[in-house]
Amino acid sequence: MDEILRAEHIVKIYDNGVMANKDINFAAQKGEIHAICGENGAGKSTFMKMLYGIEQPSEGAIYVKGKEVHLTSSAKAIECSIGMVHQHFMLVPSLTVAENVVLGVEPQKGIRFDKKEAVRITEEIAEKYNLPVPTNEKVEDISVGMKQRVEIIKALLKGAEILILDEPTTVLTPQETDELFEELKHLRDEGHTILFISHKLYEVKKLCDRVSIMKNGRMVATENISDVTETDISRLMVGRDVVEVIEKTKADPKETVLKVENITCKNSVGRKVLDKVSMRVRSGEIFGVAGVEGNGQHEVLEAIASMCHVESGSISLYDKDITNQSIRKIRDMGITHIPEDRMVHGTAKKFSIMNNILAGRHRAKKFTGKVLLNERAIAEEAEYLIKEYRVKCSGKNQEIGMLSGGNIQKVVVAREFSQDPKVILVDQPSRGIDIGAATFIREKLVQLRDEGKAIILNSADLNEVLGLSDSLAVFYNGKIAAYFEDTSLLTEEELGLYMLGVKKMDTAEIERRMYA
Amino acid sequence: MRKNMTQEKLNREFTVLRTGLAVTIGVILSILIILFVSDDPLLSIRYLVLGPVMSFNNFCSLLTMWIPIVITGLAVCVMFSANQFNLFGEGAFFFGGVVAAVVALSTNMPAGIHPTVCVAAAAVVCGFIGAVPALMRYKLGASEMVGSMLLNYACMNLGLFIISYYFRDASAGSVVSGKFPKTARIMTLIPGSDVHMGFIAAILLVILIYWFMYKTRWGYEIRLVGQNDKFAKYAGVNIGFVLIASQMLGGALSGAAGAMEILGVYRRFSWTGLTNHGWDGVTLGILAGRNPKYIPLAALFLAYLRKGADLMSMKTGMQTDFVSVIQAVILVFILAERFLAKYKQKRTCELSRQLEADRGEKGGISLG
After folding, report:
1. Do the beta carbons of residue B158 and residue B150 sit within 8 Å?
2. Contact B99, B261 (CB under 8 A)
3. Phi-psi region of A89 (alpha: psi -120 to 50; beta: other; left: phi over 0)
C-alpha cells in the first residue's frame, strides 16, 4: 500500500506555553481506516487541527503523497485533498442539501446560481459513493445521521482523499452508526483514507484497520488492529495496567439533605433534558449519577446549582425550597459545585490562584470588611489551601492558567471543598488530569463523605463513578432508568446496559429501592 | 536560557518590552517627521522634548492638561475592566460640562459648595446616561461599542441644543453660554495659572479608584466579570448589576471630569464640539493596561507630548497634527496582538522545551 499522509516530528506549542503535541510521527496509508485514540487532553484535536490547517505546527513537517505541504488554512488543506467532518456540523440549516454540498464551489449559469446542476452534482457523488441523500430537502429538516452524510459528500466533492472524522458516532443512534460504518468501509474500498477519532474502543476495533494511540501529547503506538485487544488500547491510552481500585469503607448515610422532586428542564432549543426526575441524597453518601453524555446526569447537577432554569418540579435542601433561587443564595446555603469544564465555569485563567480561590466567597465576613477586602485572611487561606491540596505552583500569585490541568482542578476543588458545604456537586472531577491529582481528589471526596457531606458525583469515567459512588442513579434520555442502593455488586457491563437503554427498571422499582 | 524563568515572568517581560518598544517607535517616528518637514528641526525637537519644562508657565499648563485626562483614563479603566468596550467617555465629558454649566448658571450658592454641587450633578446625570449602552448590551445583546459611539453624538447635540437655546449669551459673537458666577468656578490651586483644585481631586480619585478596583469586593466582582463572565455567574455574581454599575461609574467619572474642566479652566461654556478628552482616556486606559495605578504616569506622558507639540508649533510653525499620528502608532503597536508574536512564540517554545527537559518526562510506552 502507498503512504498518502505523513507527519514528521510535529511539535505544537500554544502561545500560553502549553505543549499540546510533542514530537509526533504519524503515517497513514492509502485506502485504510486509521483510528486515533487518546484520552481527553492527549492532543488528538490539536493534531487534527494541524492536519486540517486550522492550527500551524511550531515545528515539524507534513507530507501529502510524498510532497511537503504547508497547511496554513483549511482551504490549503482542501487543496491537498484533506477533508474534515467536524463534530459540530458546518452546514447552513436554511439551505437545501444540494445547496450546502456545493457551497464554495457553486455551479453557475451566467452569473446565476445553477440549482439544477447543483442537484445533479450532488446526486452523482451520492451515487458514486453509495451515500443517498435527499438533495432537495432543507438541512434543518433532515436527521443528524443524514447531516453527517451531507458533510462527507461535501468533503468528497472538494476532492478529499483523506477524510478526518472527529468523534462521528457520538451524535448517532446505533443504527445510524452501523450505516456510517458501512459507508466508510465502502469509501475505503474506493481508495480513500479515513482518520477516525474516537473514544469508543469497540467501534475502533470493529471498523478500523490500524490504530494510533496518543497520550500526553505524544504518539505512543501505532498497531494493526488485529494485533491488539481493546484492553491493550485502553492500557496504552491511560498508561496503566490495572484499573486502580478506589479504596473506601462502606458508607453510613444519615438524614436526607437534598430532595429533588419531579423536575423538568429544557435546553436552549427547547428539548427536554430532564423529564420528571426525582431523587434524594443523604448526608454521608456519595450519590453517583451515570449516563452517556447528554442523557441528563450533567443537567441535574446544573439544575441543583441553579445554573439552568427548572421548568417544573422542586428542589429542596433540608425541606427548604431552593428551586430557581439565585446562584448566590444557593452558594450561601451551602451547596458548592465542581463544574464540568474548569476553564469555562471554574476559573478565570488570567487571575492569580489567590483571586481564583476567593471567587464565590468574596462577600463572606471572613474575607471582607465593610469596604475593604481582608487581604491577609485571603492570602492565608490561599497559602493554606495550596499546601493542603498540594498544588504545584510558584506561589499564590501565579496566574492559574499557567498551571497544569491537574493543578488547576486542585485549586477549583480546594475552593469548593473548603467552604464547609452541606452538599457538594461534583461534575467530571478527574477529566483530563493526571492520575496523581485524580487519586488525590477521590480520596478527598471519600474523606468529605465520612465527615457527613452529601455528595453528588457525575463522571464519564465508569471506573470512577462505580468505585466512588455508594449509591448510583443511571440516567437515560432525561429520566432515571435505574437506581442501585449499593454499587459494590454492580459491574461495568451491567451498568453499560442501563446507560445504553438496553435494560431499564420501572419507576415503582426505582422508588422502592431509593426510599427503602 | 536564564534559570528560574517561568512562563508568566516571560509574559510580564514581554508586556513591558512591547509597551516600551511601541512608545520608542512612536517617538522616533515623530522625530523623523520633524527632520523631514521642519525648517529648523533642531529647534523644533528642542521644544518638543524640553518645552514643557522650560518655564514654570509651561509646566503649569502641562498640569492643567493632565487633570481631565487622568480622570477620563480612570473611567476607562473601570469600564474596560468589566470587558465592556464602552467609548461613552467622550460624550460624558462633554455632557458633564453642559450639566455643570447649567447648574452653575441657574443656581446661587456659596463658593466651594457651588462647584461641588455642579460636579456632583454632572456625575449623576452622566452616570445614568452611561447605563444605557450597558443595558442595551445586557438586555438586547447590542454592541456596547456602537451604542456608546452613537450616544456620544446624541449627547453632544443635546448639550449644544440646551446651551444655545436656553443659556446662550446673546451679546457674545458666537454660541457660548453666559459667564459663570464667580462662586461656581473651581478655585485655582497655583496662583497665576490655570491649575485648579481638580488637580487634588484627580490625585485622590486615582487612589480611590485603585482601591476600589483592587481592594474591595465590588472591584473584584467587576474584574471577575471582565475576566470570565461565566465563571462570575457560577460564583454567584449578579452579572447584569455589575455590568451596569461599572459603566455608570465610568460615565460618572467622565462627567465629573468634564464638569471640573469647564468650571476650572473656562469662564463660560464655549465648547462647540466633542473635546477628545474621552478618547485620550481610552488611550491612557490601554497604555496603563486598565490599571488605575499607571494612569497618572501615562497621562503625564501624553500631556507632555501634547504640550511639547503645542510649544513647538507656536515657536516654529510646525503642525501639531502629528501628535495624533504618534498616539495612533503607539496604540496600534500595543493593541496589535501579532506584534512581536513570532519572537514571543520562539521564546515560549524554548522555555517549554526547557521546562519539559527539566521535568525529565519520559517518552511513551510501547506494547509488549
Report:
1. no
2. no
3. beta
Q: Which of A14, A309, A373 has the highest number of chain B CBs within 10 A, making it the mutation to test binding with B?
A: A373
- Asked if the Cβ–Cβ distance from B236 to A350 is below 8 Å, we say no
Q: Are B219 and B212 in contact (CB under 8 A)?
A: yes
Q: Which residue has the cell 433540608?
A: A318
Interval A459-502: pLDDT, tens = 877 778 888 999 999 998 888 999 998 888 888 778 877 877 77
Residues 6+ positions from A222 with CB-CB distance below 8 Å: A26, A27, A210, A211, A212, A213
Cα gap A264→A310, rounded to integer Å: 6
Give B-chain residues touching A375 at CB under 8 angstroms.
215
- Helices A115-128 and A144-157 cross at an angle (nearest 10°) of 100
Other beta carbons within 10 Å of A309:
11
Instruction: Round to whole Å and give the CA distance between B277 and B300.
Output: 14
- d(CA A362, nearest CA chain B) in Å: 6
Cα B87 → chain centroid: 10
Instruction: Respond yes or no on whether ipTM tops 0.85.
Output: no
The neighbouring-strand residues paired with A180 are none
Structural contact between residues A141 and A172, judged by C-beta atoms closer than 8 angstroms: no
- The residue ranges of every structural domain in chain B are 62-300
Q: Nine-digit cell at A80?
A: 491537498
Separation in Å, CA of A515 to nearest CA in chain B: 32
**B7 vs A contacts (CB less than 8 Å):** 16-17, 402
pLDDT, tens only, A199-229: 777 888 889 999 998 887 889 889 999 998 8
Which domains, from first to last, does chain A contain? 3-238 (3.40.50.300), 246-334+420-516 (3.40.50.300), 350-419 (no CATH)
Residues B215 and A358: beta-carbon distance below 8 Å: no
Q: Is B349 on the interface with A (CB under 8 A)?
A: yes
Does A326 sit within 8 Å of B238, measured CB to CB?
yes
CA neighbor of B128 nearest in space, from B244, B273, B270, B293: B244
End-to-end CA distance of chain A: 63
Question: Is some CB atom of chain A closer than 8 A to the CB atom of B341?
Answer: yes
Q: What share of chain A is helix, strand, coil (3-state, %, to 5)?
A: 35, 25, 40
Instruction: State the cell numbers at A392.
Output: 504545584
Q: What's the longest Cα–Cα distance across chain A? A: 78
Q: What is the pTM of this model?
A: 0.77
- Give the full edge-to-edge strand order of the sheet including A218-224: A82-85, A162-166, A193-197, A33-37, A210-215, A218-224
Q: Which long-range contacts does B200-205 make (Cβ < 8 Å, 24+ apart)? A: B201/B67, B201/B71, B201/B260, B202/B66, B202/B67, B202/B70, B202/B71, B202/B296, B203/B296, B205/B70, B205/B71, B205/B74, B205/B253
Nearest to A461 by CA among A274, A246, A301: A246
Give the angle B38-B39-B44 at the CA atoms, nearest 5°: 55
* Helix/strand/coil for A294: coil
Q: What chain A residue is nearest to B340 in terms of C-alpha separation?
A: A15
* CB of A196 closer than 8 Å to CB of A33: yes
